[in-house]
Amino acid sequence: MTPKFLRSRGAKKFFKSRLATFSLFVIGIYTAIGIAVLFFDAITVDDTLQRVGPDSTPMIGEQKIEKRLRDADFHLARLESALNKKEEDVENAIANLALAERGISDKPREELKSEVARGWELYDELATQKDDAEFDAFDGKKKELKEQGIDDNEQVQKLAGNAADEAVEALVTSEDFVGSLEELEGIVAALYRPLTGWDATMYNLRRSIGTDRQGRSISIRALFSIKIALQIGVVSALISVIFGSLLGAAAAFYGGLIDHLVVWLYSTFSSIPSLIFLIVISYRFTGTQWESSLLPVYVAFCLTFWIGPCRIVRGEVLKIKELEYVQAATAVGFGKFYILLKHVVPNTMHLMFINFSLLFIGAIKSEVILSFLGLGVKNQPSWGIMIRDSGPEVVNGFFPQLGAATVFMFILVISFNVLSDALQDAFDPKHVS
Amino acid sequence: MWNYIVRRLLYNIPVYLGIILILMALLRFGAADPAYTFLGKNADPGDLEKIRHQLGLDKPFFVQYVQFLWEVLTLNFEQESWGRPGRTVGEMLSTAYIPTLLITVPGLMITATISICVGLISAFNRGRLADRTLMVLAVVGMSVSFLVYIIVGQYYGAFQLKEWVGTEIFAIEGFDLEENGFIAGWLTYCALPVIISVIVAMGYDTRFYRAVMVEESSKDYMVTAKAKGAGRRKVMFVHMLKNAMIPIITRVMTTLPFLIVGSVLLEYYFNIPGMGNRLLGAIFDKDFPVIQAFTAIFAVVFILSNILTDVLYALVDPRVRLQ
Predict the structure, then answer these.
(1) Residue with the larger pLDDT of the pair A281 and B1
(2) Helix A274-284 vs helix A349-372: angle between axes, to the nearest 10 degrees?
């Protein structure tokens, strides 16, 4: 983008739109996160695999007492696993633990061990209390229902379950229970070094949204997926736009056999529905050494996405090549190739930008679908994989993972949608706003 | 007219030959060969040979090409599926297209009707609050992943609805038209996927139809009609709608081939035994004959609908025939 381009009427119109500038800003933030992950390893694949808390626990919203209990359990278990290592390994083991930034306090080892034991005792007591209350209420209600003569199994289960829930609720909100829990949390907190500064930020970030079924951090996975989405979007949209537009421009400009060939090529490629084509290409890569890389996704996207820009640029160049300035350039004696690159292609730039933006959206959405089907990204998280993983969670009424993936993707896609609308408004005279 | 149709048909022959060529080459050359992909690393060489011979993969490419072209032309797929031994590809094809059409045809009709209406309303109120709200909704709707609609739709539409109402209105998954008769079966198993597909497609279609109408409304004949004193409503719904029919037909027709494909995810998620679901199953089983035949059929349908679009175009707008 030259300054001249920025001074053009279209660019002025574009930057006048506040929404478009804002969407550019949002895309900028995403890109910054993507670059931090890609080049500076701000988040590694290992980070996305670590356990950061008890499984399937949302951390947003009110912290229920049961959740606090499970969290205490998680922290005790985490420390115990480190303490059970051989003497010289303890420092190492702690450094390699999940949530590495949360160090263990400097107390002597024996003291830590006894504290952990005390913590477990208290935890066991609380957990037993809770379980007992639950079972007693469940069985009691069941017996009561039997005496009343209600036999319908489903109904009995439901009513007894409700009774058990009520009993647990009554227990966990009782003062004794909460007091013991606070004591337990105090023990757990004393076992760890207090968090400050950057460590605290990272720790809170990891645990900000919640954990999935394997106790992995949802927020970290969603943030890491930004990198995947941007990588796939930029690579495939860029290659297809450049390749497609150059092919289209050349076809229209030279005409004749090249034009026929290109038209045949794109009508052929566009006759295979793109989703089917994507699926088939991903299938072709199974069993090869590139299977777990992103290469199949790139190939599949580039092979299907070049058609759009090719068709549009060809149409535009057909018009441009009749214009006077092209004739003038020919009259001056420039070669055909020079005119094509210097005078024709730059005048299709706006179409390339618009198409890049549109293809970017297409790439992100298709990546999610392919990954969901198990044919796209492998061995690392992506929004599609998060959505796939959240399928069984949703059945149990657990939404944070689905929500996080959706929201992260939604913000990026809607920014690009707004951006491409604004680009079309500003640069494409045919577009209707 | 006939002259025109024949020309379109002839024009599409090289495209069609090209598609089959690209598909077959794509499935055979490059990465690993299909028999190897199917049997895996530790396959017995004898088995590999046998399976290649069975499908004619050991013949020269040109012979395979002609043979396969003939199969597609006669719609006679005799090969046995690798993933489901004992069933031929043709059999699978003939049972798979019905469920697909049961989802996609109603989906397409409902989507087209609603989104044309919404587009008209939006264009009629251009720039006003109603128009802006509708367009913002359309962009928001377009920005949410298809998968989210499916997952959330299934959770609330089938799973939670059953809890609230007490009886099963929409099935969570599956497909069975025999049990309760056709209509009840369709309502239980297909209605929810259709609703979801309509919601998903609405955003794109509404925006498109609105753009078409807005563009039409700035044309000269509209000014003339207004100058002659025709009412705003009459101009909008009589003069403009007629002329907007051409892009509308094109849009509806170009979505026709996606009728078969568009429901891949819906079929997969709701476990409906349609074409898309079968193709995905074949991909997971590395079932080469099914993949090849199904993709070829998709391409045929695509081209046929292209020709049909051209013909309809010529019917609506006689100028097209002369080009």
Answers:
(1) A281
(2) 60
